[in-house]
Specification:
The structure is a single chain. This protein has helices spanning about 55-70, 100-110, 145-155, 175-200, 215-220, 230-240; strands at about 1-5, 10-15, 25-30, 50-55, 75, 85, 85-90, 115-120, 125-130, 135-145, 205-210, 225. The chain is an alpha/beta fold. Among the domains are: about 1-75, Nucleotidyltransferase, domain 5, CATH 3.30.420; about 115-145 and about 180-230, ATPase, nucleotide binding domain (Nucleotidyltransferase, domain 5), CATH 3.30.420.40. The strands form 3 sheets. A 5-stranded mixed beta sheet has the order 3-2-1-4-5, with helices on both faces. A 5-stranded mixed beta sheet has the order 10-9-8-11-12. Helix 4 (about 175-200) crosses helix 5 (about 215-220). The mean pLDDT is about 90.
């Protein structure tokens, strides 16, 4: 059994691969929850574990310790590289790029081997471009829908908002709906702006992932929704 883990800013996603490389189990929990309950869901005959993490060194050390206690014999954490699996990083200091972005680019390149755009809609929205040779052309990092709402609610006095109920970018008719719809409006504007840029660039493929990625892909009306894109990049990063 192989366990693959994607530790993001808000959620920890995992999946288990059987001997044939097929997914035999998966799950997602808040990164703020304790890790111990996860071991009730994971198989007890783990051999290899692959991890991509943007969490703190302390969190990663705790995760490694718990995996060792669970009997994992081979634990590997992926790291962003200058080049790997056909992709060349544009950063002068590659280690400063979040490993989740790197893993998503590796997986996207493996799927298409052509100029492409990769969008990850998590706590932050990251947008990256690869050219036809797999060279990173740069990208964008923007606040995701949750961060947009939290920024306004956390920094503006006397603003109260209910829980979001669906997606609605139309003008709100009270303060609560104005906050929620405002975040939706900005999210819609991001996908619309990206759509125009993709039309102007020689981009052959679009891959979208992340918690809000399915909505983003539906709104932009093109590309492919790949929920496990970051997890798919783990093997490429650690075995290339």
């Amino acid at each position: 059994m192989i366990l693959e883990i994607d530790v993001g800013n808000s959620f920890l996603k995992w999946r288990v691969l059987d001997a044939a490389g097929q997914v035999s189990g998966r799950g997602r929990v808040s990164s703020r929850q304790g890790l111990a309950p996860l071991f009730e869901q994971w198989p007890h005959d783990l051999q290899r574990v692959r991890v991509g993490s943007v969490a703190s060194a302390e969190f990663d050390a705790t995760l490694r310790s718990l995996l060792q206690q669970a009997g994992a014999t081979e634990i590997a954490f992926a790291a962003t590289q200058r080049a790997g699996a056909g992709v060349t990083n544009s950063y002068a200091e590659p280690e400063r790029m979040g490993v989740d972005r790197w893993l998503a680019m590796l997986a996207a390149w493996a799927r298409c081997k052509t100029a492409c755009c990769i969008v990850d809609c998590g706590s932050a929205i990251t947008i990256d471009f690869l050219d036809a040779q797999g060279v990173h052309q740069g990208g964008y990092i923007l606040p995701g829908m949750r961060l947009l709402r939290e920024a306004l609610l956390g920094n503006t006095a006397r603003v109260f908002a209910a829980e979001a109920d669906g997606f609605d970018p139309e003008p709100g008719r009270d303060t609560s709906s104005a906050v929620l719809h405002g975040a939706d409006f900005m999210f819609d504007a991001i996908q619309s702006g990206l759509g125009r840029r993709l039309d102007a660039l020689a981009v052959d493929a679009l891959f979208v992932t992340g918690g809000d990625g399915e909505l983003f892909q539906r709104l932009i009306g093109r590309g492919e929704w790949v929920p496990d894109l970051v997890l798919d990049g783990l093997r490429l990063a650690l075995e290339s």
